[in-house]
Amino acid sequence: MTDNQEQTSVRQVKKEVAQANLLRGVIGILKDNREALCRLPEMLEQLIELPEAIPKEEKATNTLDECRGPNRSEEDKAILARKEKEDLDKKVKFLSEDNKLKAERIVTLEKTIQDHKAEILAVRNTTSASTSKDERNDGLIRDITTKEGKLKDQAERISSLEKKMQETEERFHQQKEEYKTKVSGKEREIDQLKNRLASLSEKRVKQDQSKVEDALSLNRQSKVEEDFASFIDGDRMDVLDRIQTIYRPKEKIYMEIYYPRLACLIFEAAYERMIEARKAAVEFLKEIARGVVNLTPEQIRQFSVNQQLGYPYFTLSFSVNVRRQESHYPADVLDALMLNLKETAPTCNLDCFLDDVKHVAGRKLTTWQTEDRFFQLPPYTLNDSTVVKYMKACMQLTWRMVTQIPPLQMEYKSLFLQKNQTKIGYHNSPDMLTKETGPSGQDQVEEIACYLWPGLLDGGGRLIRAGEVLCKIKGKL
Questions:
Q1: Which of 72, 94, 194, 396 is the most exposed, fewest CB within 10 Å of its CB?
Q2: At 406, phi and psi to the nearest 5?
Q3: Which residues contact 434 (CB under 8 A, 6 or more apart)?
Q4: Phi, psi (rounded to 5 degrees) for 73
């Protein structure tokens, strides 16, 4: 082997040794820092560059070996020693510089390693955070799984409840339809009851108009009450003046007692006759209503024929039973007829009852003159034209009173003074002395001698105007 080959071989060996040492160092570093594997390509590039920095060795090494041979002189040995020293100094210098470079390289590598460690630590932290997040996610997943189970159970319960609700709704709709049918039936019953109530209310109003008044009525009760009050100061005073003009009595008792009493007697007679007339009218209208209803099927053809032929009227005849047949008459028709009778009362001609009123008034006058012998008037007084006119006015007013629904009442038959009467004074006739006690046996109750004007009550007994009375003077039995 030649020297050149030997030197080449030595350098090659040294290079391989250096590479092996470097490689072992790198391997050790990688073992300690496995996170730096991601930087392996750059490190290998640096490894490749290191051998190129190693300078070529001089052939002095071989020469030194040769000088050490036994055949060399002292001078040669000194020269060789100097050369060897120079070589060693160069080598030391090279090695120092090489060590300096390596130290700088190591510092750079350590810095790089520190950076890689920081990156690795950051990655570890990220990984730890990711691991913690994964753990939290796992916990959340477990919670979600648990809640999903609960939701599934609740969904099953909801499904069961929905099924029950559906069944309940079906039963509800079924019951709703049943109740609808029942409610519809009840509504029909209510409508029928309403109609019946309206009909009954209408009938009740027709039967009792004392609280419900038709403002358009010609014979409303309020108007009758007003006319009753004005009648006292109007027609009554006119007849009193006429009687006083006829007889011109000197006694004061006539003007204050007997003449007003005569006017009151005539008014009472008219009222009593009108009451009888109304009762007869009710019975007569019952028969008229019954007869008209019964004859309608038979007479409607005759009515149509006469209407077509242009006849203004035709005669209708039927029998009237004077006996009461209250269970055989149409009540609605009678109510309508009575209402019509009330409305026509102000214009009704009542002259046919004049003789009856004269007769009743004459009988009352005779009875009064029997009780009070001091009171004497000739019978022809009732035939005076002014008195007759007064009688007609009394009949007209009392007829309007009794045709009210219900009829107004007159109060004129009490024997003892009560709260609903006005005491004007005492009757000083000798025949008008108290000879009886009151209804309770108490002497302080005053006995009525006569009425100077009757009181007025409505159909329910409510006092409208108090009657004017004279009381008897207490005397010995």
A1: 194
A2: -75, 170
A3: 446, 447, 472, 473, 474, 475
A4: -85, 175
Flag whether the pTM goes above 0.90. Answer: no
* CA gap 68, 76 in Å, rounded: 9
Answer whether residue 370 shows pLDDT above 50. yes
58: pLDDT strictly greater than 70: no
The listed range with the strongest mean pLDDT (179-183, 310-314, 358-362) is 358-362
pLDDT in the model for residue 324: 60
Phi and psi, residue 315, nearest 5°: -85, 135
Instruction: Please name which of 337, 219, 348 lies closest in space to residue 289, comparing C-alpha atoms.
Output: 337
Q: Are 80 and 63 in contact (CB under 8 A)?
A: yes
> What Rg do the C-alpha atoms of the chain give, in angstroms?
73
Give pLDDT tens digits for 145-162: 888 888 888 888 888 888
Look up residue 124 and give its two tokens: 């570890």
pLDDT tens-place string over residues 217-258: 778 888 999 999 999 989 999 998 888 888 776 677 788 888
Q: What is the DSSP string of 35-98?
A: GGGGGHHHHHHHHHHTGGGSPPPPTHHHHHHHHTSTT--HHHHHHHHHHHHHHHHHHHHHHHHH
Classify residue 441 as left (phi > 0), alpha (psi -120 to 50) or beta.
Answer: left
How is residue 24 written in tokens?
């072992």
Instruction: Say whether 212 sits in a helix, a strand or coil.
Output: coil
- Beta strands at 467-474 and 421-427: parallel, antiparallel or unpaired: parallel
Binning pLDDT at 50, 70 and 90, where does residue 69 land?
A: low
The pair of structure tokens assigned to 102 is 């390596």
> If you count them, how many residues does the chain have?
477
Structure tokens that stand for 172 in this block? 């509800």
Long-range interactions of 317-323: CB distance < 8 A, separation 24+: 318/291, 318/294, 319/291, 320/284, 320/287, 320/288, 320/291, 321/287, 322/283
